[in-house]
Amino acid sequence: MMNSQMAIEVDGLTIRRGKAAVLEDLTFGVPAGAVVGLLGPSGCGKSTLMRSIVGTQVVHGGTIRVLGEPAGSAPLRRRVGYMTQSVSVYDDLTIRQNLDYFRKVLGAGPERVDQVLGLTDLADTADQLVETLSGGQLSRVSLAVALLGEPDLLVLDEPTVGLDPLLRADLWSLFRQLAAEGATLLVSSHVMDEATRCDRLLLMRDGDIIADDSPDGLLAATGTETAEAAFLALISGQDTVPPQAAHARHRQAPGHEQGGRP
Asked: Is 78 helix (H, G, I), strand (E, B) or coil?
């Protein structure tokens, strides 16, 4: 059933590698216009889930609808921006040359290059070779590429990894600005203190969604004061729950509150 208030609807998603399930029977929704954090330790399945949402991952079961369309379908080409965890730009080109190339791939106008340079604070270094950039600059270039199509949904895989606190704060300010202008953002991270910057949280462990709540709701439900403490409390509780009950917990209807380089 399509819910017009959901930007992403995942129902029964299953992904396997060989005989092992990486993600199994996941069901959840991402509200339109929100900044949603996908948080969990490295290796828990966040990147696999994000690739499924943008349509670059082989799916073995279930359905994913994005902005009302099947994930990865042609109508979503410019409506979804995807920033991969690894850098997906060309080292031997300048920032501007990279953006000009990718905007042509997307069919965006030439004026969009200067717009995204301004949004990501890269205008002063636009003619610098990518291979000479710092880690923070590289993250902003990848984000600029994701913004070229003026997407309604941004899927950002670990966009702040390795950045100092000031750069992280700058990027989160930009994420909030984009959401205020109507975009939906799904942002993955293994840094639990970024939870407070989100409207809603999806916490992952071992390929499972173990919580789907607002930051305040999560803290209230677990009786903790930080997202990291809440995550640990959930893990502790999950480890004492019978397997069938734990399986049922993540089979919630979407929206239900618990409580690049070519």
From this structure: coil
CA angle 168, 173, 179 (to 5 degrees): 125
Would you state the torsion angle of the CA atoms of residues 103, 105, 107, 109, taken in this order, to the nearest 10 degrees?
A: 20
Mean pLDDT of 66-85: 95
Q: Where are the alpha helices (DSSP H) in 8-161?
A: 46-54, 95-106, 111-119, 135-147
Least confident of 51-65, 68-82, 109-123, 163-177: 163-177
Backbone angles phi, psi at 195, to 5 degrees: -60, -35
Nearest partner of 222 among 212, 232, 230, judged by Cα: 230
Q: What are the residues whose beta carbons fall under 8 Å from the beta carbon of 161, sequence distance 6 or more?
A: 85, 139, 189, 190, 191
3-state secondary structure of 172: helix
176-216 pLDDT, tens digit per residue, is 999 999 999 999 998 888 899 999 999 999 999 999 999 99
